[in-house]
Amino acid sequence: MRHLTPADYTRQPWKNGKGNTTELWRLERDGQLLVRLSRASVVEDGPFSLFPGIERNLTVLFGPGFRLTGPGLDFRCEPLVPVAFPGDVEVTATETNGQQSDDFNVMTAQALARPQVIVARNDSLPAKGTLALYALGPCRINGAAVNRDDLVLTDGPARLDGDWPVIAVRLQLP
To answer: Which residues pair with 67 in a beta bridge?
Structure first.
């Protein structure tokens, strides 16, 4: 089990220059992105960055949410409801109404199996691939104390206990 805290994260500008991302964890092979977990804030209407060859999954953590639209896509991003979309399609955030929404992002190479993203609390998650567990408040993972905004990575099962949920991402890594 690997336990990362905000001191381990890196901050970087968005590809489109319209904001910043806090990168929580990244896995590359031969210089190619396989997985990236990050946090960002959507504060105004505008285009999302394009990521060819990448599948995206976004979960609004805090704030009112917003609408994402693009060719063949039109959905509302609501708090704690994961939504998936291709990274190589131009999408635009609308209906932000000048309010900030913080979100958790999962990016995976299209060659990988799509990740499962759920919101879990007081649950047992079986070992099956790699689990990335992002805490939305203080909780316990496999008996270890975890603080808000910590990320735990494990290839084993996970027992979640506490008053706060986690964003649980199941990855099938090569």
So the answer is: 76, 94
